[in-house]
Design brief:
The structure is a homodimer.
Chain A (H helix, E strand, L loop, with lengths): L2 H10 L11 H7 L6 H17 L4 E6 L3 E3 L6 E5 L4 H12 L3 E7 L21 E4 L6 E4 L1 H20 L2 E6 L2 H15 L6 E5 L6 E2 L17 E7 L4 H8 L4 E8 L2 H15 L3 E6 L6 E7 L17 E7 L14 H17 L4
Parallel strand pairs in A: 1-4, 1-8, 4-7, 8-11, 11-12
Antiparallel strand pairs in A: 2-3, 5-6, 9-10, 12-13, 13-14
């Protein structure tokens, strides 16, 4: 069905609008792009060209939740839980592993490096000291905080100097979808050297612009009722069209452990990408599962027998009780990134 | 109608659940308190006792948006727009004016002092310098950033030393409602010396715990439909019962300028508190309107004639184009707080 036909059908059957589903194509044909899109794409293009020239692989890390505005003049919105810890932490380890990072995150979600100094849990104002003397007083970092900060600051400064991280922000699910499509196009020139690490918590639902209320929804008229449409499954066109050779890692977050593997496998089957990382909301800091297609034999058939499973799983767990030699608790993202770099090597064709 | 009767009626007419409205009483009888409530109240009680002993007035500043979780294992929630700028900025000016501040804010929203160094717009890692020498390198603040930071840091450190700010956090609208009720009770012993500056953006709707989904709502089943109930209007019991003598300031945010005055007046009429500050979403940084009841004559009648308006309005505007002598752009919260302190003086019975 063409976009025009889909649109017509929606208009002809307004009572069917409940279950209208947008294809990726009709989504982008009917929902407006964010105003900053072109400018962002320009920055990405320059960044990628430079990284390519300097021989670096590039990973796109998406991070944080997306919002679904309920009003055009936004006051209320639907949101997804995500502080952005997974994305911000992983980005640091990708940088450490020599990747250039495009960090595409929800405004105000955690960012690499500064994440260690949350205003709530470790406010930086608490470890600054004023030293009065002649002229303008000096401000220094208290000695007991200096060692940890030095490590973070040194890494941060070297990333800034080398110009290997580009930060982009989104707020709504619409911003996210437009940005992801544009960036996939730009990164596709890197072929197999491009990795996509899609850690953002993206809404499954959205409210088409055409259905939004102009002003703040007024209370005092009883209860609030919202009908939302499904967000198109854009991993499909991403894999099939936008970036055919990219190494794509998506995430599946569930609260019901029993659904984790079935839903991760279903996603792989549906979209045909490289890895789904499944995680349970309450165990995600110390346990994840990598689900991927079974490797094919040289003749193209799966290594399993004809009727065996098409997918393989491997669990990754860390021991949170024992700190490493530097006194820090290990972060599971260190091992997730290590494993992905290994698999990306294979994907590119470099044997370990 | 008693709570039991209200509850019975809801159960008897499940099809009427759409328009079920909770009274404040039935809300607190059916929705569970946050697990940290008692501990928070304990801290508040000690704080207030100390401020009272030291002869300080106390203002409760609420700030940031509230969430409405859609699932018991929360992944998705409805949110209200608010970075918490109004509350965090105003808290600084209340402290400057000699008030002790209970800063009750949405987790991760802006906070007094640290608000000047947002990780996105003014990241503090950018102005730290490493100085290598003998032993552990020193970290200092770059000289071009030092003057501004000194001002903020000096104020922050003196507030910490004097112990005149207590910070509490909330996330959901349920956390907010329980905390507000408990704090109003605690602060009521201050009588007219207590001010309430209710700048948080509180949801008008909520999903009763009894209607929540246990696990993440699954997509793939068509559109999402949510029916929410109205949050009880708790300003009413706050004024009438919880803190009869407190000086209460509420906010009205609208996107349609034409609704601002009518809705502000309606709020005053309904709840009978002292001031509504009306602000338009797009003009709130440089223009607000104070709406308050007309002062009564000594004999108790309003100063207006019998049929004139019961309320008076005064607009407060600042000129954002001209920076003050220190080179900073003026913040409207400075004047809002100045005006409120003047009115609070009158309320307490101190003539200017």
């Amino acid at each position: 069905m063409s976009i025009a036909e889909e649109e017509q059908q929606r208009q002809r059957h307004p009572t069917c609008s409940k279950s209208s589903t947008f294809s990726a194509e009709s989504y982008f044909a009917t929902q407006p792009p964010p105003s900053t899109l072109e400018q962002d794409v320009e920055r990405v293009r320059e960044f990628i060209a430079r990284q390519q020239k300097e021989g670096r692989r590039v990973v796109l890390v998406t991070s944080g939740g997306t919002t679904v505005p309920l009003e055009l003049n936004v006051v209320r919105f639907l949101d997804n839980f995500s502080a952005g810890t997974r994305g911000a932490t992983s980005a640091e380890y990708f940088l450490k592993a020599g990747y250039a990072v495009i960090f595409m995150h929800r405004q105000f979600s955690l960012q690499p490096f500064s994440r260690h100094y949350s205003h709530s849990t470790n406010p930086f104002l608490d470890f600054l000291e004023i030293h009065n003397g002649n002229g303008l007083p000096e401000i220094t970092v208290a000695s007991d905080k200096r060692r940890d900060l030095l490590e973070v600051l040194t890494a941060y400064q070297s990333v800034q100097q080398a110009g290997v991280m580009l930060t982009l922000t989104f707020v709504t699910v619409n911003d996210y979808l437009w940005l992801l499509r544009a960036l996939s196009h730009e990164m596709s020139i890197l072929g197999r050297e491009a990795m996509y690490y899609l850690a953002a918590a993206v809404s499954d639902f959205f409210l088409p612009r055409q259905k939004m209320s102009q002003h703040k929804i007024q209370s005092g008229k009883g209860s609030l009722s919202i009908e939302m449409d499904q967000v198109p499954k854009i991993l499909k066109p991403m894999v099939d069209e936008w970036t055919k050779d990219g190494f794509i890692v998506s995430f599946k977050l569930e609260t019901d452990l029993g659904l984790l593997l079935p839903k991760s496998r279903a996603a792989l089957e549906r979209y045909g990408h490289q890895v789904v990382i499944g995680n349970d909301l309450h165990r995600r800091k110390f346990e994840v599962v990598f689900v991927s297609p079974k490797p094919t034999k040289p003749n193209g058939s799966a290594t399993g027998d004809c009727c065996g499973p098409q997918f393989e799983e491997s669990w990754l767990r860390i021991d949170m009780a024992s700190p490493n030699p530097a006194g820090h608790v290990k972060e599971i993202e260190e091992d997730i990134v290590g494993e992905l770099v290994r698999r990306h090597n294979q994907w590119i064709g470099i044997n370990p």
